[in-house]
Specification:
The chain is mainly alpha-helical. The protein contains 4 helices and no strands. The chain has one domain.
Length: about 100
């Protein structure tokens, strides 16, 4: 839910910037704004993502794999799609090595 909220907020801000100043405004203002806005959200974003991976029965190190894949230009799109698919998978209904299921 946290990641979805962030995505919706960034999408709305991008729409506002494009509608008020065009593509040039999106390139200049949004990157600066996004950098400052994401700075305090990095730790909570990592924590939520690792919890989600634990809910799936995966280790938190999978997040590092997604980052490395996203940094390689040849496979960045594939890594982003894999990240979206993994985050959309339903969590395990039974207890795993990270604790009992919350369902």
């Amino acid at each position: 839910m946290f990641q979805l909220l962030l995505a919706v907020i960034f999408f709305v801000v991008m729409l506002v910037l494009v509608s008020t100043g065009g593509q040039r405004a999106l390139e200049n203002r949004f990157t600066t704004w996004a950098g400052f806005a994401l700075l305090p959200l990095i730790v909570p974003l990592f924590a939520v993502t690792v919890r989600r991976l634990h809910d799936l029965g995966l280790r938190g190190w999978w997040l590092a794999l997604f980052f490395v894949g996203g940094a390689i230009p040849a496979i960045d799109t594939i890594a982003a799609l894999a990240y979206l698919v993994v985050m959309a998978l339903p969590g395990s209904r039974k207890a795993n090595r990270f604790g009992p299921s919350l369902r």
